[in-house]
Amino acid sequence: MKFDRNTVLGFVILAALFIGYFYYTNKGQAALRKQKETEQARQDSIARSNAPKQDTVTMRKDSILNDSVSKMAKAGQFQAAIKDTGRLISVENEFIRITFTTKGGQPKMVELKKFKAPDSTLVKLAATKDDNISYRINTGSNNNGSTETSDLNFSKIDSVQNADGSKKISFTLQSSDSSGASITHEFIVKPADYMIDFNIKMNGADKLLVGGNLNLEWQYMAAQQEGSISFEKQNTQVGYQMNGSFDYNSIIKRSSKTFGEPVQWIGIRQRFFNTILVAKNNFTSGNMEWTVPPDSAKAIVKATTNMRIQLPVASTASVPLSIYYGPSDYKFLQSYNMKFEKLINLGQGMYAFVRPLNKFAIMPIFNQLQRWVGSYGLAIFLLTLFIRLIISPLTYKSYLSGAKMKVLRPEIAKLKEKIGDDKQQMSVAQMKLFREAGVNPLGGCIPALLQIPIFFALFSFFSSNVGLRGASFLWANDLSAPDKVIHFASKIPLLGDHLSIFTITACLTSFLISWYSMSMSPDQSNPVLKYMPYIFPVFLLFFFNNLPSALTWYYTVSNIVTLALQFIIQNYIIDHEKILLKMEENRKKPKTKSKWQERMEQMQEQQKKLKEAQQKNRR
């Protein structure tokens, strides 16, 4: 890669895209900070209003008593379910352990047996006091009184082990009067699966619901699962499939979503884990609202979803649902054939153009390499070699163009000596020399431009690949996170509280490439063009330091390959004497100018005449 005036164009474009990414990310972070401040102000206001005041102990006791009496009154025919105390029941398979509670007949906590949280315990989903699944039912005659199912104890428990290895557990709420009304929440936990079936069965549904309308409220708190809570928030989204089409919203840029058409499923994707609520017969409509708690809460997002399900008005009713509690594993999510895999960020927003590259090339190749070698770090190394092999024809052309530029250095030096400090005339003469010699001054930037989509594809892929989570390699304990080997006492602006070794190796090898290439390129009189290749590696230091170490390891390997190829090709493959002879032959051939070259020369000639006229006027 040769850094003449035009070659630097590739680096300028790459830098512009990086700056665009910084702007895009910082804009999201600013929105996140604003949302945090708003939420913190709200929490402070609540805390002040709830702060103990004089003689409030008695008032609280009265409030609790009144609340209990109110709940009993609202429970109507289900008053016995208010008095009953809740119980916890655990069911598990190879992947998950679900703890159910009779309070509301719902999951209380889900533990993923194959994944560890930052505190080395199992990853837990739907495990906070803010997690709840409920809907309102009528509890008296003539729709007189109603309550939420989450306030009632589904005290009757039935458990069955099915022949296919699945486990069925049912929680039943029975009325205490002669109406015979009952509600059963039936859960089926299948072997080696993260999806559980959730069926709501009602007797007396025409009395329990108004007009067959069931309004399901799903409250979900996504707890922090990764070391960097800010990066996890940036990579958390609300996703849904409405009317057969998938879409998503950033939790930072928006705070609500209204669904006016049938919805098949709605879910919250953290960086590596998903919780998805599915209506097998579709939700009719609904809305979702969410807030981003302050970092001190160690929570990513707090969401409340209200979804409407229209049922036939009949004495019995059944609502088939299912819930996915599990990792963002592409193949696993794809196996459900419900477009769950679209939740995984293989390229979204301004980087959506790299999704096909990830889906059809990088991901299958990387997975196959990882199966062969067993190590994610070695798989990244082999993937890098494979990518460089694929683009090697263009790389060779780039180095060939650089070799020609090196051969022209003596002649460019003669031109400078002849023309002097007239940059305009020098540019015209240099372009003419390149054309006569058959040299493409843009040839050196092609590989740099080609690697832009590859880099952003790998950025998306490595940031969302759950297999990298916790995978160690060399000094990196987790390839999905920065290798924080060097720690600082306090945060340094743009850099953070650490320094990544893989970031250092990536930047050092980038600097060596710049130094080697500039040593073989024509001298630059423009200081911006002259020093840009050396400034770029410093810029990368701040950009790379907080990225996954998988990406900085890839970049390091890619740079080492570049250095090796440059040295070998320049010194052992390219014959400079043959290039010189070929260039001499090209000079003797008649040349045709492209329209672009003609326009460029006309502009340069006009600028030259204008400059000469200005100099005459000054005299």
Characterization of this structure:
- The protein is α+β, with helices and mostly antiparallel strands and about 625 residues long.
- It folds into two domains: about 10-30 and about 355-605, no CATH class; about 50-345, Beta-galactosidase, Chain A, domain 5.
- It has helices at about 10-50, 55-75, 80-85, 205-210, 230-235, 330-335, 355-375, 375-390, 390-405, 410-420, 425-435, 445-465, 500-520, 525-545, 550-575, 575-590, 595-619; strands at about 90, 95-100, 105-115, 120-125, 130-140, 145-150, 155-160, 165-175, 180-190, 195-205, 215-225, 235-240, 245-250, 255-260, 265-270, 275-285, 285-290, 300-310, 315-325, 485-490, 495-500.
- A nine-stranded antiparallel sheet has the order 7-8-9-10-19-16-15-12-13. A six-stranded antiparallel sheet has the order 6-5-11-18-17-14.
- Helix 10 (about 410-420) packs antiparallel against helix 11 (about 425-435) and helix 13 packs parallel to helix 15 (about 550-575).
- It is elongated.
- It starts with 7 loop residues before the first helix and ends with a helix.
